TrEMBL record:
Residues 195-205 have a biased composition (Polar residues). GO terms for cellular component: chloroplast. Keywords: Chaperone, Cytoplasm, Stress response. One of its GO terms (biological process) is protein folding. This is GrpE protein homolog. It comes from Populus alba. Residues 1-34, 184-205 are annotated as: Disordered.
Amino acid sequence: MENVASSGGYAFLAPQDSVPTPTTNEKEESQKRGPGLKNLLKIYRQAISCGYEKTMLDIEAKIGIIEKENNELLKKVSSLSDEITSGKEKRIRLQADFDNLGKGRRKRSLTSGVMPREKWLLCQWLEAAVPTVGKPFDPSLHEAIARKESPEYKEGIIIQEFRRGFLLGNRLIRPSMVKVSSGLGSRKASVGAEQPSTTAGMDKR
């Protein structure tokens, strides 16, 4: 029957069943770590076959310690994995925020350059509107769509604007659609007809 020895609280194989003699450094490292799980299982099987209950209990305790350490390592690895994942997500969010900030700045920069241009164009548009009401009708600038008698405006004067016209420099972009005064019209004719009759009455006297 094979012999099983115990040293430092751990069970080891008898000299005839041991592996080749390790170096000094390997011995020191092995003493720090204790026997590996594979060796413990081998010794455990030998202890069962030989009936060494104390050795079996020692090995079971050692296996329990190893299992506990493994569980703690798994928890640490899981925690580190979660931290790495969280760090990646934070980095992605920060990168997205940075990109959005850059886009916002570029957009504001473009807008700041466009707005003065739009204001300038608006001023030019307001200044380039074709004058209408109260001005003489000009066929090169205006398009008459109606005529109406007016006691306020002389004949040929614009009295109403239907659609604004625009000029770009000296170039007509769009003519104004207007209503033009036809003067007093029939009222003027009736006044002219009344004057001869009054003169005739005066001559009879």
